């Protein structure tokens, strides 16, 4: 049994268990108790929406993120087969302040204040679901890669998620080879090593066989060392994680 975390920032000696457990898919330990810090729901919220070409939407998203408008969320939705995407900005706070910031945001992006989009907080639809990460500058390349993958492989690739670079793709392809081609194109959209990942989360068994679901992973030997240190008997979900960990 081990306990991690505390009320102060500098509370780690040795492994930072909270961080290495996050994303380990149950291969390093079993969490039996967790404490969460909660924040009160803000009294007012507003959405600003803008539809436009992929590159333009990605550029506008970066402008909002880099502004002083303090958005609670900046999301992008690109439907399969489309050359356009929707930018949705969520602003939260008190009534008058939210209304003023929403008006400023609408002016900045050339959009309008509207209702919560129907796709908000939902994953894109597809036979296969993948998680894609990118740098702030790499989101545009990821959106364009989805479109080119559709054209090259006869696929449908919907992309949705945070404009800061954590998105999900819903992929529908006719064959396993087409799925592999789509995933390869999405991974190739990263500007450089370590600047983007594409991980296949779910896929039909007949399409998943032989597919590299993780892609290139740095620090694999270090990860194996941590696995050996914390689970020398390989009792915790052996083989579930990257590299057979």
Textual characterization of the structure:
The structure is a single chain. By secondary structure, the protein is α+β, with helices and mostly antiparallel strands. Among the domains are: 44-114, Alpha-Beta Plaits; 128-208, Alpha-Beta Plaits (2-Layer Sandwich). It contains seven helices and eight strands. It has helices at residues 17-21, 54-65, 95-109, 139-153, 176-188, 205-208, 220-230; strands spanning 44-53, 73-78, 84-93, 112-114, 128-134, 156-162, 166-172, 196-202. Strands 4-1-3-2-6-7-5-8 form an eight-stranded antiparallel sheet, with helices on one face. Strand 6 (156-162) and strand 7 form a beta hairpin. Helix 2 (54-65) runs antiparallel to helix 4 (139-153) and helix 4 packs antiparallel against helix 5. The longest helix has 15 residues, at 95-109. The protein is globular.
Concise summary:
With 245 residues, the protein is α+β, with helices and mostly antiparallel strands. The chain contains seven helices and eight strands. Among the domains are: 44-114, Alpha-Beta Plaits (2-Layer Sandwich); 128-208, Alpha-Beta Plaits (2-Layer Sandwich).
Strand order of the largest sheet: 4-1-3-2-6-7-5-8
Over all CA atoms, what is the radius of gyration? 20 Å
Which range best describes the helical content: under 10%, 10-25%, 25-40%, 40-55%, 55-70% or over 70%?
A: 25-40%
CATH fold-level topology of the domain at 128-208:
Alpha-Beta Plaits
- Envelope shape: globular
Secondary-structure class: alpha+beta
**Average pLDDT taken over every residue:** 92
């Amino acid at each position: 049994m081990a306990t991690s975390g505390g009320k102060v920032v500098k509370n780690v000696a040795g492994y930072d268990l909270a961080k290495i457990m996050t994303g380990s898919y149950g291969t390093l330990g079993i969490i039996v108790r967790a404490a969460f810090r909660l924040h009160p729901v803000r009294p007012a919220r507003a959405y600003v929406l803008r539809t436009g070409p992929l590159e333009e939407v990605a550029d506008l998203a970066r402008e909002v993120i880099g502004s002083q408008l303090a958005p609670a969320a900046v999301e992008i939705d690109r439907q399969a087969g489309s050359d356009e995407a929707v930018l949705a900005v969520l602003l939260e706070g008190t009534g008058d302040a939210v209304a003023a910031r929403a008006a400023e945001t609408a002016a900045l992006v050339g959009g309008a204040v509207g209702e919560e989009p129907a796709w908000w907080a939902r994953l894109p639809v597809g036979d296969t679901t993948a998680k894609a990460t990118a740098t702030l500058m790499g989101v545009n390349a990821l959106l364009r890669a989805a479109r080119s993958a559709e054209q090259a492989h006869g696929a449908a690739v919907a992309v949705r998620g945070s404009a800061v670079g954590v998105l999900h793709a819903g992929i529908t392809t006719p064959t396993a080879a087409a799925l592999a081609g789509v995933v390869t194109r999405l991974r190739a959209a990263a500007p450089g090593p370590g600047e983007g990942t594409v991980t296949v989360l779910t896929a039909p068994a007949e399409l998943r066989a032989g597919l590299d679901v993780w892609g290139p992973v740095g620090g694999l030997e270090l990860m194996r060392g941590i696995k050996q240190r914390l689970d020398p008997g390989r009792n915790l979900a052996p083989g579930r994680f990257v590299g057979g960990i």
